[in-house]
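Quick one: structure for this chain?
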Amino acid sequence: MMEPFEPRPTSFHGLRSAGGWQLKLYSIRHGAGPVDWDFFAPGIALAEAALPQPAAAEGRPGVGFLIVHQGRTGNYVVLGWWDRENELPLRIFVHPGVPGGIWRRNEGSESICVWDLEIIWAERGFYVETMLVSTGESVPEYLSRHAGTTTEFSPGDTRGR
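Got it. Here's what it folds into:
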C-alpha cells in the first residue's frame, strides 16, 4: 500500500559554485532533524563532477540547482542545469540509506519524486521569467529567486557545500 502524500520541509541554502557553475542548493527532508551534510557530501561531489564544461557556452548560462533529499526509503541528490537555451538535463544520484551503502548514479526506474517536482516546477518558472524574456536574460535575477524557506547558510560552510 502506498503511503499518503504529506508535505515535506523544503529549504533553500544559498548558492554554490562548482567548476564555473552557479547552483542553487535545496534540501527536502522526510522526518525530523537537520540535513546531514557530511553524509550527502559524496553524492554532491558525484553530481558536480557530472556538470558539463565549460559552464557557460552557447545556449548554456552556467546556472542550475542541486536538491539533496533525505527520503523515506533512500537518499537522493538531484542535479538540474539549464542548457540548449530551454532544456533541463537532470542527473540523479542515490544512496540506499543502509550501513555500508554507497552513492551511485540512478538505475532503472529510480527517478525524481513528487517532492523534487515542486522545486523543479518553481525553477522552471524562475528560468522562464528571468532568462527567456524579450528584455534579455538576467542570470543575477534568476539566481536571486528560490523555492522553499531560506535557511541560514554560509557558502564557506563545508557542511552545505
